[in-house]
Amino acid sequence: MTRFVNKRKDLNDEERLHLFMLLFKDFDGKKLIHGSITKNAELFGVSCKTVSRIWELGLKFIDDGEVVDLAKKLRKRVGQKQIHLDIEKLKEIPLRRRKTIVSLAHALGMSKSTVHRRIKDGVIRRHSSAIKPQLTDENKKARLRFCISMLQVQSSIDGGTKVKFMEIFDHVIIDEKWFYMSKETEKYYSSSNIVGSIR
C-alpha cells in the first residue's frame, strides 16, 4: 500500500468547511466511524493531524451553540508568533557589543534574522555617535602658550629685531588621535527612542 504523503500546507476557508461536513456525515453522535480521518486526509491532501484539528474545532463550535466558523478560528492559530524584544535588556548591553547585527544578536540571544526584522520594524535603530571636541578657555591658552614658545627673536643687521619660528627639525609632531582607542565617529544599534549621542 502506498503511504500517503502530505503535499499541502493549508486549506482555504471553503475546503475546511467542506472537510468538516464530510466528517460530520461519518459521525454517529459519539465518535467518527473507523477510517474516516484517514480517508478524508487523502481526499484533501493534508495530514491526519490537520483533519483531526479541524474536526475538534468544528465540534467545539457546535458544543458551544455557535455557527461553525473554522476560517476565523484557524486564522488566530496560524503564523509565527513575534519574538518579544526587551528594550531594557538592549540598553544594558555594552556599546562595543552593539556595533554589528551579529554581535547584537548574540548578546540578545536572538537570531540575526530576528534582529534584522526588528530593525526593519523600527524597534531597533542604527545611531551615529560623534565625539565633539570641547575646548575650554584654559585649553586655548595652553595652545597659544605653546605657539609663542616656538617663536625666536633675532637681531637684524640694521639693529632691529625680527621674530620667526624656530627650526623644528629635531621635533616629532604626532597626531593626538593616534593615542586614543575611541574613533571620532562610531555606529551603534539601540532602541528607536534614543535621541542624540549615546556615548
TrEMBL record:
GO molecular function: DNA binding
Organism domain of life: Eukaryota
One GO-annotated biological process of the protein: DNA transposition
Spans traversing the lipid bilayer: none
Domain Transposase Tc1-like residue range list: 96-149
PANTHER family: OS04G0681850 PROTEIN
Protein name, per record: Transposase Tc1-like domain-containing protein
Record organism: Lithospermum erythrorhizon
